[in-house]
Design a protein that fits this description.
The chain is mostly beta strands. The protein has helices spanning about 110-115, 275-285, and strands spanning about 5-10, 15, 20-25, 40-50, 60-65, 65-75, 80, 85-90, 95-100, 105-110, 120-130, 140-145, 150-155, 160-165, 165-170, 170, 180-190, 195, 205-215, 220, 225-230, 240-255, 265, 270.
Length: about 300
Amino acid sequence: MRRINTVYGTQPKHWVGDGFHVQSLFSHMLGDKVTDPFLMLDYAASKYFEPNEGAPRGVGQHPHKGFETVTIAYRGEVAHRDSSGGGGVIRQGDVQWMTAGDGIIHEEFHSPEFSRTGGDFEMVQLWVNLPRKDKGAKATYQHLSNDRIPVVPLADNAGHVRVIAGDYQQQCGAAKTYTPINLWDVVLRPNGQSQLSVPSDHTLLLLVMKGDVAINASEQAHTGQLVTFESVEQGEVGDIELRAGDNGATVLLLSGEPINEPVVGYGPFVMNTEGEIRQAVLDFNAGKFGQLNES
């Protein structure tokens, strides 16, 4: 079995704008965890929002360049617009996959309907790095509706895997990616047990979103914790075994082939060199990221 590196405790929460109350599980700006090709993960655990008749809660117009943002809606709704022409409302179970590439401007707010009714809100936002050769790719947007995301049952009625990206048991995920990535929602029934296999050369991370999980029959991880794994030596098996506690568990599994290139971040820009960051700032200030049409 693949060996666990560290089980990280829950992190302090902070607000992103006024609509997303998140804990940051890792970030390329700290570099304290080995997560390549993933740059950042913010988890907005379930939180109730009162109905709101004023300005929508969220984050106004801001730029990105050099990577991709992935937002998974577990509860609640987000309305998105960007300068590539992409946008719409992501509802419960939907995923938005935005490639910032050569530069994009976007905004994210609670949807008008969710603002009107209020309710429970739970989201994950993940930043995925792009290799040097693709950092200048045209900005694009993928809306992955819940009904497009394959769901594969686990053996012995242990639960199921929702395949957002990559593949599981020869079932391909809904997202198109630039580098090999697996992004799976793993839902385990009470005391459900399953062995999962990802490529041995992938970085592997687990976010426990709900419940208690025994990993490889040796260590426990609990709600809100991040689990990282050691690299696999040539010839070793990279599988992991998960067993849920009495109340079941939900786990977000991330695996990806490392890009192994320099990472230089400056706010919403992630490039390979300081010079490229300076150019990104100049391009944004020159209006080269486009603009949002009036809503």
